[in-house]
Design brief:
The protein has 244 residues and is an alpha+beta fold. It contains eight helices and ten strands. The chain has one domain: q2cbj1_9rhob like domain (Jelly Rolls). It is 24% helix and 23% strand. Strand 2 (58-60) and strand 3 form a beta hairpin.
């Protein structure tokens, strides 16, 4: 059996600067795995997958619409969760074998208010339990709901009361992660973050995923959902990351 954790960790596609930002700031914006000429096809596949999703896989919140299980939605999305820089980030931050917990589409609807700042997973005595990624299907701008982060907040021993109490307003020293379509945000799941308001008249699309410790319980039971056509096309590395 391959020692995938060691193989992934031996890579060198994530720059030293990006690793520094992940450790100290809590997030970094990097080029994504989709070439510029492939972005239109990716966006079309996204729209088709969302339109064809069953009601069981559809989640409509106060500001966003989600479609779950993008591992099974088409080959256009296969490269996202095996992208080497993101896997290297997991090795550096989670620091132990990991797996994919979820990968879903998330569309922020027009004229939506900002999301309250939050963490996905709190740091625990064993360190940081999650790395997340957000692929920008559309450009992330300050007026269309780009994600904001509070730099260094994943290291705080004490959380300020104004942050812990569903803070929706702009927060001191927050940074808005903007980028061109195709860019990818990689972030520590313990850093405080949330999308800003989408004051534009257009939806803002993204594909989001999370990696967690291998023994932890996944948000979605991906092995139980795998379709034969998906299993037939994915790589051994993908199977490992899906824990199948």
């Amino acid at each position: 059996m391959h020692d995938w954790f060691s193989i992934i960790g031996a890579g060198g596609e994530l720059s030293a600067g990006a690793i520094h930002d992940l450790r100290d700031v809590g997030f970094v914006v990097i080029p994504g795995p989709v070439a510029p000429e492939g972005l239109a096809q990716l966006a079309a596949a996204y729209d088709s997958a969302v339109a064809l999703a069953s009601s069981d896989d559809l989640g409509v919140g106060s500001t966003t619409t989600r479609v779950h299980d993008f591992v099974n939605r088409g080959s256009e999305f296969d490269e996202l969760y095996i992208y080497q820089p993101v896997l290297e980030a997991c090795c550096r931050i989670i620091e132990q074998p990991f797996k994919l917990s979820t990968m879903h589409a998330r569309t922020l609807r027009p004229h939506s208010q900002a999301q309250a700042l939050h963490v996905d997973f709190k740091r625990d005595p064993n360190g940081y339990p999650m790395i997340g990624f957000i692929l920008m299907v559309d450009e992330f701008r300050s007026d269309n709901g780009a994600t904001r982060f509070v730099p260094g907040s994943h290291k705080w021993a004490v959380i300020p009361d104004d942050l812990a109490n569903d803070c929706v307003a702009d927060y001191e020293n927050q940074v808005v992660a903007c980028g061109a379509a195709g860019s990818m945000i990689v972030y520590n799941g313990s850093v405080w973050h949330g999308h800003t308001a989408n004051s534009s008249g257009d939806p803002r699309r993204s594909i989001q995923g999370a990696f967690i410790r291998r023994e932890a319980r996944s948000w979605v039971n991906l092995p139980s959902r795998m379709r034969p056509e998906t299993l037939a096309r994915i790589s051994p590395l993908a199977r490992y990351l899906l824990d199948i």
